[in-house]
Amino acid sequence: MYHHVKKHVHILLHPTREESHWDKIINGFIIILILLNLVAVILETEPLLFNKYEKIFHGFDIFSVFIFSVEYILRVWSCTHDSKYKHWFWGRLRYMVTWEALIDLVAILPFYLGVVKIFDLRELR
């Protein structure tokens, strides 16, 4: 059961030529969420909008980081289904240093660094 679920998660989050209906929906949702985040970042630069809708911007930010974090964790967890990343530890580490995984990490890490008060890197996102 465990390997069956991991295989399906991997297929959903790592599209191949044999795309299914669900991986198109999931990846479309992620792309739309990325675009909405770009719009939100642009709108936040306008002081009047930011002051008026600060709670909405913050809520959307938390929602987005949650979704992107879950996606990142699931990608790292399921990557061992791919033969390139077969080893349970070294395979995941090898996947985590790919460009795709590093971009995902750079997108979510500033939020968590700001939460633990190490750095405030929201602008980097």
Q: What structural keywords apply?
A:
single chain; 125 residues; mainly alpha; globular
Topology of helices and strands:
Elements: H1 2-13, H2 21-44, H3 47-52, H4 54-78, H5 90-96, H6 99-115
Helix pairs in contact: 1-4, 2-4, 4-6
Briefly say what this structure is.
The longest helix has 25 residues, at 54-78. The protein is an all-alpha fold. Helix content is 73%, strand content 0%.
Description:
By secondary structure, the protein is mainly α. 73% of the residues lie in helices and 0% in strands. The chain contains six helices and no strands. α1 packs across α4, α2 runs antiparallel to α4 and α4 (54-78) packs across α6. 7% of the residues are buried. The model has no long low-confidence stretch (mean pLDDT 90).
Which descriptor suits the 3D outline? globular
Instruction: Give unreliable regions as ranges.
Output: none
Beta-strand fraction estimate: under 5%
Count the beta strands. Answer: 0
Mean pLDDT equals 90
Largest sheet: none
